[in-house]
Amino acid sequence: MRKCLIYFLCLLAAICAASAQESDTTTYKNQVTTNLFLPIFESFDLSYERVLGNKFALGISGAIYGERIEEISLDDTYGGLELRTKYELMPFARIYFGGNQRKSHFLEVFGSISGVDEKGRLVRSNTDAGFGVYTLGTESYTRGGVGLGYGYRFLFLEGRLVAEAQFGVRTNFDVNFVVLNAAFVRTGIKIGYRF
Amino acid sequence: MKKVHAVLLFGLSLLFFGCYSRDDDYFDKIVRLSISDAVVFDNQENYNVGDTLIFELRFSRYLDEAGFSNKLDVFETSNSEEFGYSFGISKFSDFSNNFESVNIDEEFILGTRSANYSYFGYGYSNANMAALLNENQEEYISKVGIVLVETGRFQLDFERVTLSTGYDFDTIGVEIEHLLSAESTLNTEFTVNE
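Above: the input entities. Below: the structure tokens describing the complete assembly.
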């Protein structure tokens, strides 16, 4: 844990040093980022973004979630059923605003296709005698969703490196009573490389 | 900035699009089935005050389930040896020129009571009776007696009977709606004389 903290402080120092430079940034069209928080929860994501025009970008992000992601999930139960999202693919569109070449706000709309294990589902099978019987089992399925995100982006080292702080919430078309079954995905501190 | 507003509005509308839901699945650890004409009632049609009227409700533990070719084993599914239910009885009223629902005091109903019946739907409010799995574990049977203490024209009501194993978050419940088929010859009307 202490080692992680030292690495993190070094990274912050590097970022601060880089941000002190006032050089112009070159325009790179492609960007790859990963969320620094997810590995803490045995999870990992990778995003690819392609800049289209001055302030608009399209991209796709993929995430694999471990069991510990449930510690920060809001949609891990639904109607008495236990849900576990195993993976997620998120195509997204971004618009950058209110900034300059090196730092700016952005809004993001994204879709989601996720693989879910739902424990506690009724599963029908047959007895040895050939009659049907229901048991509580696990059902795996894929579901869709949409989300909205806001973030702030910094570019460093002449635009080669990127750091983002982002907040994103996604719903998966389910409702718990009247509350949207939301999950904070694409949320956290991200770092990446532009080329 | 207009673009930002447009993206924000579009995104929010997509989020609220999620308000279409699968709420019907909520608490859905209940298997719902239906049975027809499960009541056996040897109706004498004329009774005297003090007589005991007897009817039986019986059904197999293996029941048809819509959408499946084989029968469902409700005992294996629910692990319950008991289905609770309630039945109705109504008395003809000259005032309304119709049969009106009557609640019978529990002391006049004979038979095994259900301890865990908890059906909150559109059912009857008489005593909760139990249909118990018989010895050879093939049928659920409930035998009920009603001590007749009042004169008049009566009829037993079985059209809105729902049998249930009860609800529990951790186990599977079975709920069986009892229907009277078009071919049913069940005559439930009787008269009680002095």
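Note for the figure: Chain A touches chain B through 35 residues (CB under 8 Å).
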